[in-house]
Design brief:
Blueprint lengths: L1 E4 L1 H8 L3 H16 L9 E2 L6 E5 L4 E8 L2 E9 L2 H4 L1
Parallel strand pairs: 1-5
Antiparallel strand pairs: 2-3, 3-4, 4-5
Length: 85
């Protein structure tokens, strides 16, 4: 699957600590090759049509939507990003 990052996602990503960015890079490779990879723990976000969350670690999450064959990366950050949508 092709990944496309929004400007907001790129700003969020730039603000992450270096070690978290390395983990994110690995998780995004998993996402591009296998949406159901167990370490991503992908699930639908309640109240948002076609929006999903994936896990970087126990504290960091990323939000994305799937438009046909493209995964659009929307946000990344602490688990609280789910409240800020």
């Amino acid at each position: 699957m092709r990944l496309l990052a929004t400007d907001r996602f790129l700003r969020d990503y730039a603000d992450l600590p270096h070690d978290i960015r390395e983990r994110v890079d690995r998780k995004l490779r998993y996402l591009a090759s296998d949406l159901s990879h167990p370490s991503l723990r992908v699930k639908r976000v309640r109240g948002r049509d076609r929006v999903y969350e994936g896990s970087v670690n126990m504290d960091y999450r990323f939000l994305f939507r799937i438009d046909e064959d493209v995964c659009v990366l929307e946000r990344i950050g602490h688990h609280s990003i789910l409240d800020k949508r």
